[in-house]
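1st attempt posting a full record on here, be nice pls
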Amino acid sequence: MWKYQGANRPDFAVQPKKGQESVWDYPRPPALQPDSRSVEVVATDGTVIARASSSIRVLETASPPTFYLSPESLMVSLDDVPGTSFCEWKGQASYFAYADAKLAWRYDKPSVRFAAIDGWYSFYASLADCYVDGEKVQAQQGDFYGGWITPEIVGPFKGDRGTLGW
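the predicted structure (as tokens):
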């Protein structure tokens, strides 16, 4: 059993320092948070896929934030990818590719709580180079996860080795 230090933070979580955020302090169910930092997504061939001066982060306990960019942020067209998935909080996700690489997903008609990201795109930092304020983000581990680890985020994170039961 976990010994909680705060509302959600188990005793094995990294204690955040000034200016840091612990993913264990993020809520469940997840919450939306506007973010005014610049964001850029670049394909492995160097093509800029998306560029935005602001985004919306989804914050969920134990996971690095996922950044959602408005459709107007896209610099290229993305191709639909067959198949969908379902999130208990947001609803049904559709997937998108660039140059045959599945890089992004979005929610069309998500639940009311997540209406602000309706039609907005999120990108896998493991499959593209993603930047926040010019600094390359680290991808959340795990084949399914799309969180972006920026310097101010501390974990451990869902998807890391040994976290299968979280």
